[in-house]
Amino acid sequence: MSEYALRTFGLTKNFGYKIAVNQLSINIRRGDIYGFIGPNGSGKTTAMKLVLGLLNPSGGMIELLGTAGNRKMLKRVGSLIESPGLYTDCTAYENMKRFSILCGGSENEISYLLSMVGLAGIGNKKVKSFSLGMKQRLGIAIALLGHPELLVLDEPVNALDPMGMKGVRDMIMDINKQMGVTFFISSHLLGELEKISTVYGIINQGMLVEELTREQLDERCADNLHICCSNPQKALKIILDKFGSNRYEIHDNFLDIWTDVRQAAHINRELVISDIFVSEISVTKARYEDYFLSRMGNMNVGGGVGQYV
Fold first, then answer.
1. Do 160 and 274 share a structural domain?
2. What is the pLDDT of residue 297?
3. Beta strand pairing status for 33-37 and 59-64?
4. Which of 164, 197, 213, 268 is the most buried (most CB within 10 A)?
5. pTM for this prediction
6. Is 252 exposed, middle or buried, given 0-12, 13-18 or 19+ CB atoms closer than 10 A?
7. Contact indicator for 168, 180 with CB cutoff of 8 Å
8. The domain containing residue 92 runs over which residues?
9. Are 26 and 200 in contact (CB under 8 A)?
């Protein structure tokens, strides 16, 4: 069995002269919650439609569950693109029953999935009376029919209120943990993806900017000390010798160094003892948002970060 649920190799899609997806190569391991983050219009939905066979690629290759170029593997993939297509005059159960006929689902499976997404006790309430969050949860339950190994969700919390977002977010983590389903989730809302993703793929202008794990992101977004002093070069040597660090930025009159920020008072003392005048020493709190925005800026393309929030 392949360790990857999904890989793409140079995946490209042109619409006339417009390149919507440009040489995209992503790697999603089994068990990942892969957060696909980028501005509106960056190519996220197009890439997902290519993976699901809803669009034909202009170039590149797609490998699903260890098999390349075999659309039969799509039977093992569930999806919810843009918004769920539901029978609004039917109940949640009736919707599940209709869709289960297509994939051979059982009564037990329907009951289990409705319970999993928190829709087991709503009785005969019609879908037209559902909130947006309830519709999203029902759409995800339908996508889970047939025991898919990979679930592709396009902007699953878009337009939801905070409670609805939390409900969908908690449900995704429960399904990942309890059912072992791998998730490929797109969003332009970093605040939501950062709460659940184990791996991130950053996309802009149809191109993959970077792919990194949560651990790598945490390391790159670690807090650092900002030190304004009379001799940054000498200060750097002292800190490296006595406290250690593998990352720093040095300037004419200040130093940013990634080290144990709990040692700030001890570092200050060592610098003063060494006749270095310290005018400021403070902890800079790094944010995921700042890192992602900086990576978007590194694309060096017109329009900057677009509508990324």
1. no
2. 66
3. unpaired
4. 197
5. 0.80
6. exposed
7. no
8. 4-213
9. no
